[in-house]
Amino acid sequence: MRFWGAVAVCSMAITTSLAAAEFHQAPWMSSAKCTTPDAIAADSDLARLTSWPAVYRSFRRYKQCDDASIGEGYSDKIVILLTEHWPAIKALSGLTKANPEFERFVLWHVDELMSPEQGKTIIDNAHNHCPAAAEKLCQRLEVKARNPS
Amino acid sequence: MIRANEFPKIPKGWLDGASTNAEDADTASAPIQVASTLDYDGATKQLTLTRGDGTIQQFPANNNAQRNSRGKWEDGTFAYGYPKTHPDDSPDSAYGSHGIHVFRVPGAEGLGVHSGRESVPDQLGRPGVDHATKGCIRTTDDGVAAISDAISAGDPVTHITVRNNGQE
Known about the structure:
The structure holds two protein chains of two kinds. Chain A is mostly helical. Chain A is built from eight helices and no strands. Helices cover about 70% and strands about 0% of the residues of chain A. Chain A starts with a helix and ends with a helix. Mean pLDDT of chain A is about 90; it is low at about 5-20. Chain B has one domain (about 35-165): L,D-transpeptidase catalytic domain-like (Beta Barrel), CATH 2.40.440. Chain B contains one helix and eight strands; from the N terminus they run E-E-E-E-E-E-E-H-E. The interface between A and B is large, with 37 and 39 residues.
């Protein structure tokens, strides 16, 4: 009896653990550090994210607000840069070498929100059009675009 | 001259507060609007806007949170925060044609109701309201427009109630 009780408790714990593990937020996100004015400013900043230096500045200032709609906006702008402005990958490569956490931020946002077409474009760009100085970054981008979950 | 501890005297014939006489009731003026409320039912995937005058509008909606996100919106009632629009808002943009209405959810920033991706699929091939989000409820452009209309009409949404939205 005691054995089956223990099994039941263990089973419940595993189920709860799996449910909790299904979703995971960006590790740099912190609701305690992201004030509402920060969140509004981060949202307003999204319209200016048309280059990698602009994305990097926003990451430095507002990464703690990378949540919900603001995170959706980052994903949108990052995928647009990787699909419609691929030659700028050299600038991204320089920034990610200087700040590895920024590379994780970019890879994080190559996610399920992008369209299948955008995913294919990133894979093609990373596989077939990668500048020599950005090979490792291209490999990681290709892996993430193939497995964006 | 200022006199402390003395209320002004009301002249005879002036009304002081509501009349108790039924014949004095104001039937000509429009009824006073109270605030609108928003309700999202995760089981029926419907967003219901109830205006202050009792008018009910329903819109399809979904809360398909992707894995690398905070997950689905928890059940409960949450106060309205603020609206936010963007220069590139359009039917297929990240937030739709009318931006986002953000609610005050403990531990979250930027969690709200928006539309967008009307004809753009996500990685699982889902366009429209079923397109994945990072926790926000996605509805139609009409749904967000109705919320914005309530606000501009002086009938603001005060809160959203999320129900039957258990994490699968």
